[in-house]
Structures are given as C-alpha cells and as structure tokens.
Predict the structure.
Amino acid sequence: MAPTRDEQHWMYRNMVTSRKFEETIASIYFEGKTPVFSMADGPIPGEMHLSDGQEPVAVGVCAHLNADDIVTATHRPHHQAIAKGVDLDKMAAEIFGKATGLSGGRGGHMHLFDADVNFACSGIIAQGMGPAVGAALSRKMQNKPGVAVAFLGEGAVNQGAWHEAMNLAATWNLPFVCIIEDNDWGISVSKEDSTAIANNADRAAAYGIPGKRVADNDPYAIYEAAGEAIARARAGEGPSLIEIETYRLAGHFMGDAEGYRPEGEKDALFAKDPIPKMRGKMIADGVATEAELDAIEAESAARVKAAIKFARESADPAPEDALTAVFA
Amino acid sequence: MTKSNERKLTIARAMAEAVQQEMQVDPSVFVMGEDIGALGGVYGNTRGLLEEFGPERIRDTPISETAFIGAAVGAAQDGMRPVAELMFVDFFGVCFDAIYNLMAKNTYFSGGNVKVPMVLMTSTGGGYSDGGQHSQCLYGTFAHLPGMKVVCPSNAYDAKGLMTAAMRDDSPVVYMYHKSLQGMGWLATEPGATVHVPEESYTLEIGKAKVARQGEDVTIVSLGLGVHNAIKAAEQLEGQGVSAEVIDLVSLVPLDRDTIRASVAKTGRLIVVDEDYMSYGVSGEIIASVTEHDISVLKAAPKRVAYPDVPIPFARVMEQFCLPNVDKIVTAFDSMKAA
Ligand SMILES: Cc1ncc(C[n+]2csc(CCOP(=O)(O)OP(=O)(O)O)c2C)c(N)n1
C-alpha cells in the first residue's frame, strides 16, 4: 500500500505546516522570558514540548483517518493535531492562552481538545489509552463506523494504563490502533535504560494482536503499516500495535539543555531530517516538481503566519472565566 | 551565625545535600524516580547524587509509577530506606493505590509489625501556566488519608532538616515541595526560600509548626509558598498599623494544632492561606481545629484565601485570578474588620 500522489502532497503539506508552526512557536517562546529564562513569562507561558522530527508519524497515520475517527494525543501533540485537522487558528490561540482558543485558554498546549475532529490530549503519560479504547468500544456498541488511534511515546508504554488498555482492546476486539512514537528518549532516560525489550511491537504478542516496527522515520513505511492496521480495525478484525522509529530534533521541552544526549547525536539526527528527505524523494519519483513543493511550503508558511497572527491579536480571556465550564 | 558564615542554599540544593549526607552514613538509603539521575531531577533536588553514588543507589526509573512506588514500599518493608520521587504531585492518579493503600496502611494492617520507612517526595504548585495536570497542590488529598506523614517546607533550612528527619523516620513521609520555592530560575522563583543552611546534618521535628512572624492582631496560617505571601501581606498590614502573626505549618500530618490555637487565642482572628483547592481541604481543617476547640477566642469569623474549586486554567490571566496572593490576604483581613 503506497500513498497516492495526492496523499503524498497532503502528507508533505502537513509535515511542513507542523514544522513551520513549531519553528514559529520556538521563535516566539523566549520572548519576555530572557535574560534569565523564566517559564512563566512571555506570550506563551508554561512548558512547551515540540515535535520537530516526528512529523512523519502524524501524517503517515492520519492520512488514513477522517474527522469522524478518534485520536488521543500526548503532551507533545502539535504534529498529531495538525495532521488530524484540528483548527489551526484556534489551536494557536489556545497555545497563547487566548479567549479564541480551543478551550478559551483553559487547557493550553498539553490539553488540546477539538470535538469537531475528535481530537483529545492528556499530559499524563499513557492516559490517552483508556479514552481511545473506550471510544472504540462505543463505536462498536453503537454499530457506528470509525477507528480510534492512541499515540504514545516509547517511554509511555511502560505505564500500567498502557498494558491494561491493550488487553482490553484485544479481548473485546475493538477498532483500535496504538501508535508508539519511539524517539528513544523519555525526558533524559533512554529507551535502553527504561525498557526491557528493544522492540515494543513485540509486546503485541502478549495481547495476541499484530505488532509491527517501522524503521527510520520513513513516512511511506509508516503510511503502509498504519494503513494495514486501520483497515483491519475498520473491517472489525481488531486492534494492532505499531512502533515507529522517529527522532526528537528538539529538547524534551523548550529550555532543556539536553546534557543527557550523547555527543554528536543531534547532528546525526538533523542529517536525517525527514522533511528534506521526503521532498527529495517526491521529486526523484516524479510525484512533485520543485515548484509544486515550493508552493506547498509557501502556502504552509502563510497558513501558519495567519494562525499565529490570529492568536497574537486575539483578546485574553476574562480572568473570571476561569470559574466557568467546570460542569457541562 | 554571623553574616560572613552564611551559606545560602536553594531548597533544591538543601534537599540534595540532606540526601547526600544521609546516604554517606546509611547504606540503606537509595533514591529512585524519573530523571533523578543524569538530569539531577527536573527540579534539581537530586543534582550531584548520581556522580557520588552511582546508578545502583541513584536509580532512574521507567515511567512506571505504580511499579516503582510499590517497589519502594516493598524495599522499605525489607530493610531499605528508599526515597522515591513522583515528579509532579498531579501524577498521583496513576499510582495512588501504591501510596495510600500500601505505603500508608501496611504498618496498620500488620499491627505495627511491618515498618515502611520511605520518603515520597513530590513537587506541587502552579503559577507558571503549566496547565491543570501540572500545577496542583493536592495537600489536602494526601493529608486526608491516614498512615502517612506529610511535610511541606517553605525555606531551605527547613527543607534540609525535614528531609533528614523524613529519611530517618520509620513511617512513610510524603515530602511536598513547591516548585516556586526550589530556586530554579525558570520557575517564577520566590527568593525568600533561599536561606542559610548549616553544613552539618540536622533534623527538624516532623509535626511542629513554626511562628514565622510574631504579631498580635491576626493569625495568618499557611504552608509552602503561601508562607511567603503571608509574610508579605503581614508587612503590608503593618503599614496600616495591623500586627499580623504568621504560622508556617511545616507539617500537615501530624498537624501542630496547639501552635495554631495558641496563636489565635492571642490574636483573636484567623486567616488561612492555601494554594490547594478550597473545599474539603487544609483551610477547612485549620479553621475546624480552632473553632471546635474553643470558638470563644475568635473576634471575627475566620477567612480562607484558597484556590477556587475549579481545575487550574492555562491562560495566565485566569490562573493568576485564581491563585492566592498578597492582595487577597490583605482584603480578607479588611473584610474581617468590616464584619
Ligand atoms: C504519569 C506521568 N508520569 C510522568 C510524567 C512526566 N513526563 C512527561 S513527558 C515524559 C517522558 C515521556 O516520554 P515518551 O513517552 O517517550 O514521550 P516523548 O516525550 O519522548 O514524546 C515524562 C516522564 C507525566 N507527564 N505523567
């Protein structure tokens, strides 16, 4: 299963949009926070987890999803949100804590919710699992179409919630797919130092479901593996597990000095940046011309610029709005 | 201690020093938690320990809180004295059973025959827009459930003495440290927490509150970061000719009710400042401790300055609106006068 020409253009567009979005966030994030880094200050306060480098995972999976399908994301959600079609203006405004944000500034960057496209987040590790499995159960019980996908980091699959939810999904044969983004690091702890096996996809055997590992952050291989798993789920054949080797080009959060990374690791990762790689391949394969990809990049940049402008120019919430929306 | 001998440490460094000194003399002490090794803890409170003690005794864990906090319980029952870190108190939900059903109850279930001498340290508090899953205090949640001691230092001196006491205690101690007091530059840091800390090892009595400031007209009771706000409010009130006494709880469990009662008996007025949610929490407990003992000491109804009962919002304006602050404490006093 290979992505069509249109799908490749869509994938490239979303990867580039995600990257531009994060580059812009990164360029703004330190405003007001220096000379001594203070997380509380500036137009984007709080922790910021960027997903540069991990874009192929989001597009390879979400290329198979539509707005009705369900995604639960992690504390590092921007690439997944963009690929799932979360409203970019409202998402940007949320990250800036504005009244026009997805939740009017209540949730912030780690808690993006867009009910229009069935997208949700949790900053608590592995806690997207239960809700995704529950949504899959709901679809099955209501005899409604759609699959649920939970994204997690490789560090997260050592959490109890992960194991319990996997077993539930498998036992009940639910339309569910678990996608593990293996960027090798859980904050400062490497996969090798935290995980007893090298290949988390092997853990699928414990639940009697298919498990697959995709090497080298390759959007095409991700597309293929996710396509098979999602097709199985749609056909009522039950859940699957996919672990994807990907790269975190930035620190765990902005301000992370990354002293734990081995010397030279970052340079090697930048050399494998998936965006120029995909661009080169699309041109080599004759799927796109330089001019077409330039145009996609320009459109993405304009789209991001507009979203950030919208966010910046939006009003702050009224302080007392903090007291509303606690109950339905 | 003369000024020239002052050695000012942040709470983070004071905590690390306490652990270091205790590990040097007690081979049963070890530390485990997420990112406490090479990173030295997200809040810097285990910095330098890996270099001195190595990965056998300074253990980075997988993101598996149920497993490693449960394992700390087992190791403690078997003769070790683990210090386990739960990075943010908000993450308690994934591992609470190990905490309140195992750590806190095994001594009781065994009729006192099993000891669980462990420290569970965890960060609390917000104020820097980290959102509703990374900014809570949850003091009341932990203090409510029996079987674990709960402490919360407001400065580095207390932090070191409490940590040493906690490691030596034969009961489990939950050690809650406020992020804004850690002395990490990147977190809206309260400079008042960085104070002189003696080099030698010492302990602070768990269960003893401190009078952080003497006064005659009103008692302001708080803990952690709130103590600093209370002291600033007291200074402001002084400008209005009001003499406020500030009580730093230091320990939530055991709670030093006598010190609070004695202060309120003297001042006749009580304000409780708590960054945790208002309802069912520390503020209600403090007020009940006074009123059920002797309501006649009060010249005015007590007041609470606490976090409203809503999840913590991300947007700065909303979060700051909800947090206790100096103005709210002063206003609370003014409204007591008016009443
Ligand atoms: C239950 C819980 N424990 C710990 C954390 C703190 N924490 C946030 S991100 C993170 C590392 C996550 O690693 P991984 O799952 O590999 O995702 P990545 O950050 O690499 O995307 C940790 C330990 C948390 N948010 N929730």
